[in-house]
Predict the 3D structure of the following.
Amino acid sequence: MRFERITMYNFMRYKGENRIDFSCDRERNVTLVLGDNTVGKTTIAQAFRWCLYGAVLTERGKRQEDYQLLNTDVLSLMNADSKGKVWVELIASDQEKRYIIRREIIYTRACPSMTAEEFQKKYSMYISDAHSMESLAEVDERKVDELINELFPRNLSHYFLFDGERWNDISVNGVKENIKDSVHILTGLSAYQAAMRHLKDMGPYSVISKFKKKITGSGNLYDNLEAEEQKYERKIEHCKKEIETIEINISNDKKKYGEIQTYLEMNRNTEALQGQYRKLGIVKKSQGEHLLSEYKRLVLEYSDKVYMIFAEPMIQASLKMVKSVEGERRDVPHMRQATIDHIMKGGRCICGTALAPGTKEWNCLLEQRNYLPPADMGSLLGEFERTAARWKNRVKNTPEELEETAQKIDDCVRNYEETCNEYITLEQRMDEHIDFAGHRRRLKSYQQSIQELSAKKGEMQGQIVSLNRQKERLEEEMRGLEAKDEENRRWRERVELAEALYRKLYHDFSAEERKVFLELNKQIQYNFERMFNAKDKKIELSEQYNIQMYYKTDAGYREEKNLSEGEKIARNFAFIVTIMDYSRKRKEEKALDKSQGNDTLPIVLDGPFSKLGDENIRLIAKVLPEVSEQVVLFMLKKDWKYTDLDEFVGNAYVIEKDAEKSYASIRKAEDILDGGI
């Protein structure tokens, strides 16, 4: 299957008619569309989706209604009475037919707002011979969606319409896709499943059930046997449903068990870190207390002595000034005015001389009294000098002691900060509230649940075997009674033939599915290595076709679930390329009948390399033309030079947008093929 052309009219960023013709050459099978960011590359990819499925790829948090399809410039020129048309036409072809798909909407404007409202819709499809348009025939509108889904299965659209800037996981509109079902469709295995479902796996609507209903009997014995056989059939169906439920529960338990196991594996050192974390917390607390103690000691010592240090220069200057004014002191050391007053009041000197006012002795005592404070500064000056000397002696080594204490505090601060930094680093590596014991209890609980469910599943399977034997015994008796009726005999033969065919299909499907799984697992690693040159990583498909990435460690490979955006794209690219390559090879080898699988699909890539390195771009680009019959690339000009795809490009286009205009246009760029741009 190849796309021949897409034509857009007033679609989103594109005003008027814009057309791209895709290269259908087998050698030069790449069509290139270059453009800068935000000019309209993704709009073209959206045009594919909208034309095929009537919906665009939405961003997280947005709905289909949030996207306005009518070009804004066209809408701005409309009034309440005018109408604006949007349409996209896509032409595709295979070896036999050409398909023209056209989706169109006519809008009115809800003036005065810039809002477009749907007025009329039309969806049409035409089919003609691949080499002639004369046999062009329109498809019934009611069957268009069904035919489109056959040609371009919607649940596979995220594989062949790859959005590298937003599609970083196997999902559609945020819903995880069933990869296993997708693989079955792309590899043709779904044809086996459809046939088995039609034969037997539709319950009462299956072919075998309908055939059995054609068999009739007569008499009470046959009726009783038939009723008993139907009872066993119901029991078997009940057991099968029970097994389906059990398998779902086992799968869920295994998933949760694996998540916890992976979590514990990823945090296998966390318990040791927790012990280190707790010890470090004690050290941190002790260091903090020691730092606070040293700081308090510095403050107390500073408060107790620093005023003495600061006062010393002032004291010395004061003493010098007072001594220069007062001269020599004339007071009796340690004498006080109160002493003189006491002697004079007693009327007798300590030498025994009588004292009376006006006498020589009296006047001598008065003179001496005047030399004492507060009448004279001499005595105070002496005390001042003694205090100054005492202060000086007390703070003699204080500056050095304060400096030493301050240095200790600096050391404490540095040690405390280092411990805090280490403490924070540990916090970032683990969570002190992780309950490992709880995780292990849940792990054991899931393990026990899986064992119990598996045992129950075994019991159910045993019951089915037992019930089938009893059912076969009844059917044998019924066949003996049916043999009397030729019509019953023929229907019984048909039932047995259908059941034999079902067993054959089931056997072939199981063998082919295993073969496909092993081939894909081998090929996906090969493609991953040659596209990403990652020797320390590998990817594998699980039994449920989940894509898992493993990192090489000293103890072997370990699964990595916290992937970067680039790693997710690398993983998914390898998977998609593998599926496309496998599908292409199967078609070339004609290993399966054409009716068993879809024709190979083209691959349309929007911004596939935006999150990849230069070397990975070159490696991936080299593979794409090999694995798909047709490749359409929407990409940035800056990434083109790393692809080395010049020799594979059949058609090339450039998206142009004037900064002053709100719409973009597409022009063919022959100069790209000549090494230009």
User: Anything to note?
Assistant: The longest helix spans residues 270-326. The CA atoms of residues 309 and 396 lie 9 Å apart.
